[in-house]
């Protein structure tokens, strides 16, 4: 549990193409998961930030069309 709140702002669901096993930072694992779609026409993209009011880490995922 990385203590990150997920906000899914996509009308699509994306299945992970390849399983990921990683020791290290949560952000690196998210990057590796999303990078699997980098060549796709329609892909999920993520943005991580801290909520300025609560200080909680947020992962916002939305759809991008190349």
What this model shows, in words?
This protein is of the alpha+beta class and 66 residues long. It has one domain. Helices cover 15% and strands 36% of the residues. A three-stranded mixed beta sheet has the order 1-3-2, covered by helices on one side.
**Principal-axis shape:** globular
In order across it, which strands form the biggest sheet?
Answer: 1-3-2
- The computed structural class is alpha+beta
Radius of gyration of CA atoms, rounded to a whole number: 12 Å
Question: What profile does the largest beta sheet have?
Answer: 3 strands, mixed
Count of alpha/pi helices: 1
Give the low-pLDDT segments.
none
Number of strands: 3
The succession of helices and strands, N to C, reads EHEE
Number of domains: 1
Distance between the termini: 32 Å
State the oligomer: single chain
Question: What order do the helices and strands come in, and which of them pair?
Answer:
Layout lengths: L3 E6 L16 H10 L6 E9 L6 E9 L1
Parallel strand pairs: 1-3
Antiparallel strand pairs: 2-3
């Amino acid at each position: 549990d990385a203590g990150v709140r997920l906000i899914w702002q996509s009308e699509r669901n994306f299945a992970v193409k390849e399983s990921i096993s990683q020791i290290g930072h949560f952000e690196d694992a998210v990057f590796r998961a999303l990078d699997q779609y980098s060549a796709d026409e329609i892909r999920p993209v993520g943005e991580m930030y801290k909520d300025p009011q609560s200080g909680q880490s947020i992962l916002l995922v939305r759809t991008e069309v190349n």
